[in-house]
Alpha/beta hydrolase domain-containing protein 14A (Charadrius vociferus), 130 residues
Amino acid sequence: PGYGDSPPAEMVATAQGRVAFLDHVLQELGIRRPVLISPSMSGRFALPFLLARGDRLAGFVPIAPVGTKDYAAEQYQQVQTPTLILYGDRDTSLGHQALQSLRHLPRHEVAMVPGAGHACYLDKPEDVHR
């Protein structure tokens, strides 16, 4: 809500609101301890959720998410959620920028997708799934 072609939504205007929204969605779907995959713009929802409720996740897979610079290294260092950081080697902006911040997560691994751009999941879906 509030992004793309969806109408503006007051409830997601703040990071706390986005955490509450994502928490509500997971509860409504009955999903417990999911692996949260976060490409690009979804970082505005996923990153605050990871920092506030990372203990509710079995894993986190950020794919060049936006908003990584909004948090300090110390905040990332508190997160114990296993994380696989993905980015395309042809992503000239967000992939490397996000990696610089996310590498402060203590339980992370990095996987670069060769021959893929920012939307590496569209450019090389087989490689991303593997």
Remarks:
- The chain has a mean pLDDT of 94.
- The longest strand covers residues 83-88.
- The longest helix spans residues 15-29.
- The helical segments are 15-29, 43-53, 73-77, 94-102, 120-123, 125-129.
